[in-house]
Automatic annotation (TrEMBL):
Protein name (database record): HAD family hydrolase
GO biological process: DNA repair
Keywords carried by this UniProt record: Carbohydrate metabolism, Hydrolase, Magnesium, Metal-binding
Domain of life the protein comes from: Bacteria
GO cellular component entries: cytosol
Organism whose genome encodes this protein: Rubrivivax albus
């Protein structure tokens, strides 16, 4: 675990809740998202792409999947049709291989035992996020989805809404995520931010340059950072 903040002990003492990103932080949804992209490529007569090519872009959702699978970006001809087809296929298989990352269950149990509230703030829309959270037995105190507020991350609105629902000041919450946008959203909301290095991370700047208060190598590192047993 790489800690950046020189006042880490002060931060930990103020934490009353932990907010998590969903995909790439709590849940490994990459097999189903990548699978949906390759299923759609097959329909278009294209060969499957290696999983290693698709995985880094999972955090960018349908936009990222269509981008890497078909080389199309928002505004390009045919992008919207491909995006809708991808989402339809993903809806059919989104629980086929998706599972919690190893150790996540143990970490969440430890937070419950310590009396720390925890919630989920994701850019995934509710029609996808809610069934996944329910199926995997995630007992989050709050779930804020990509369509819960008028803005998605990196805007701070979803994180501020989560803090409001928990009746906490944003500074009493920390946010854990695997994308630069998570760090940007958390900073804008006035929350300490921790980077989940086991996640998807994207293809941009390396995780250690995101300006996080800590870079966690595995879920258990969160307990070490919080100074919990």
């Amino acid at each position: 675990m790489t800690v950046r903040s020189p006042v880490a002990g002060t931060i930990q003492a103020a934490v009353r809740a932990v907010l998590f990103d969903l995909d790439g932080t709590l849940v490994d949804s990459a097999p189903d998202l990548a699978g949906a992209a390759n299923d759609l490529r097959a329909r278009h007569g294209l060969p499957a792409l290696p999983y290693e090519t698709l995985r880094p872009m999972v955090g960018a959702g349908a936009r990222g999947m269509v981008g890497v699978a078909f080389g199309r970006a928002p505004g390009d001809d045919g992008f919207d049709v491909l995006r809708e087809a991808f989402l339809a296929r993903y809806a059919e298989r989104m629980l086929q291989e998706t599972a919690l990352f190893s150790a996540v269950g143990r970490v969440l149990d430890a937070l419950d035992t310590a009396g720390l509230a925890w919630g989920i703030v994701t850019n995934k829309h509710g029609r996808f996020a809610e069934p996944i959270v329910q199926a995997l037995g995630l007992r989050a105190r709050t779930l804020v989805c990509g369509d819960t507020t008028p803005h998605a991350k990196p805007h701070p609105a979803p994180l501020l809404e989560a803090a409001r629902r928990l009746s906490l000041a944003p500074s009493a919450c920390i946010y854990v995520g695997d994308d630069l946008r998570d760090m940007q959203a958390g900073r804008a909301a006035g929350m300490p931010v921790l980077a989940a290095a086991w996640g998807y991370l994207g293809n941009g700047e390396a995780v250690h340059y995101w300006g996080a208060d800590a870079v966690l190598q595995g879920p258990d590192d969160l307990l070490n950072w919080l100074q919990l047993p």
